[in-house]
UniProtKB/TrEMBL annotation:
Record-annotated Rieske domain positions: 3-107
Protein's cellular compartments: Cytoplasm
CDD domains in the record: Rieske (cd03467)
Annotated protein name in UniProt: Sulredoxin
Keywords: 2Fe-2S, Cytoplasm, Electron transport, Iron, Iron-sulfur, Metal-binding, Oxidoreductase, Transport
Entry-linked InterPro entries: Rieske_2Fe-2S, Rieske_2Fe-2S_sf, SDX-like
Main localisation: cytoplasm
UniProt superkingdom: Archaea
Keyword Protease on entry: no
Amino acid sequence: MVWKRTISAKALEKAKSVAVKVDDKVIFIANINGNLYAMDAVCSHARCVLGQLDEQKLTVRCPCHHAVFDLKTGAMLEPPYVSPNAPKEKLGLKTYQIRDNIGWIEVDV
Ligand code: FES
């Protein structure tokens, strides 16, 4: 395990979600009602950075072609919309363990 510090727990609580750079990765982290989540923030379709969190469904939508990812598992729930005949392959994203370590959000990369 390699825990890396990201942002303060208070900052994440206020923002709810944010994409953070950790070494060579960009990771989407979220605090939903005290539950912490972390997954790759770079879309598996065409590498846009994710950002549209749905707190009720625990999903994140890609702003570029609207693929939807499960925040808990990283699974792609809805494929990107590019054209009606485009392949509907569903490529998920990696998730990470995340913790609050004395006021700092850390991700196991
Ligand atoms: S880049 Fe995310 S859906 Fe296309």
